[in-house]
Design goal:
This protein is globular. Strands 7-8-9-6-5-4-3-2-1-10-11-12 form a twelve-stranded mixed beta sheet. It starts with 12 loop residues before the first strand and ends in a 9-residue tail after the last helix. The model has no long low-confidence stretch (mean pLDDT 92). By secondary structure, it is of the alpha/beta class. Helices cover 34% and strands 19% of the residues. The longest helix is centred in the middle third of the chain and has 14 residues. Strand 7 and strand 8 form a beta hairpin. The chain has eleven helices and twelve strands.
Length: 309
């Protein structure tokens, strides 16, 4: 069974923000579209997260990504992973992280059943990296190395490209991805949870980077259920290009629903006016059937942020 919205877009993916807490302060972070920090008391418990995942999977969602904030700040992250990977019919569970604590947690997460991991890595220049994140590059690189060593497949590096900041770091990052045997994602800056001044100053089109990748690629793949995203297979490394959400092609091929860190179903990264509370009904004793109906109603609220005219 597969749910589709009113625009015939299938619902295949669920992104669950397990916390808004983070040990970094990345200047470009979109915070999964959440406008305000959530009080820790309203964070979902691991049982609530697993139950939401179970309901989603029962409705045909097969891929789940754990996001934040920084998911590894949750002391029960292994329990969350174990609980979700134990649900029948799940095809894929992945997690996004800044990598700071990954060297110490990667093996346990992999043993718990986590299959894939995305690591934010804005630069290989220690000064640039610290300026953007406030973090320690050596610890993040240790996290990348450990993730590869314990067997996550694939490991993806998320590099948000910022004009006059890290554009010139792209060749070094491609070489690093090749050396480590990981996938590099070049991500165009989204105008979400950043000021208009910041966006205007740092937004950089990836057109020139794509021209370079097309010249070097031995094969170009298109991910139809991931916003028609292009994947450039170079001779010894793979590079994906992620354009901003506010374009028609991205929106018309969106297959996602999100869960905010305080337990609301969110239909679109760009919108906060169509949130559906699922955590309150859970805490009030709602049955699985009632929760399924909440999911169905939220799915019907999904629509392309940029509709085709």
């Amino acid at each position: 069974m597969r749910l589709c919205d009113n625009f015939d877009r299938p619902l295949l993916n669920l992104r669950i923000s397990v916390t808004q807490r983070c040990d970094y302060h990345c200047t470009f972070c979109h915070k999964e579209g959440e406008a305000e920090h959530t009080n820790n008391n309203t964070e979902m418990s691991f049982e609530e997260i697993v139950r939401i995942a179970k309901i989603a999977i029962s409705l045909g969602i097969t891929r789940i990504k754990l996001t934040g904030g920084e998911p590894l700040m949750r002391s029960d992250i292994n329990q969350i992973v174990t609980g979700i990977t134990g649900i029948p019919s799940l095809r894929d569970l992945s997690l996004t992280t800044n990598g700071l604590m990954l060297a110490d947690t990667a093996k346990k997460l992999h043993t718990a059943g986590l299959g894939r991991i995305n690591i934010s890595l804005a630069s290989l220049n220690p000064e640039t990296y610290n300026k953007l994140t406030g973090g320690n590059l050596d610890k993040a690189l240790a996290g990348v190395e450990t993730a590869v060593k314990v067997g996550f497949n694939p490991v993806k590096l998320n590099m948000v490209i910022l004009k006059d900041v890290n554009v010139n770091d792209i060749p070094d990052m491609i070489a690093f991805a090749e050396k480590m045997g990981v996938v590099l994602q070049l991500i165009e800056l989204d105008p979400i949870n950043v000021s208009s001044i910041y966006y205007k100053r740092h937004h950089c089109s990836l057109e020139n980077q794509e021209k370079m990748l097309r010249q070097k690629a031995v094969n170009i793949e298109q991910r139809h259920f991931m916003h028609n995203r292009l994947i450039y297979h170079l001779p010894n490394v793979t590079v994906e290009v992620v354009h901003p959400i506010e374009n028609t092609d991205f929106c018309m091929h969106c297959t996602r629903l999100r869960v905010t860190s305080d337990g609301k179903l969110k239909t679109c990264l760009m919108q906060n006016d169509k949130l559906t509370d699922i955590l309150t009904p859970i805490r009030q004793g709602a049955s699985d059937k009632e929760l399924e109906q909440i999911f169905r109603r939220a799915n019907q609220l999904r629509e392309p942020y940029n509709k085709v005219a």
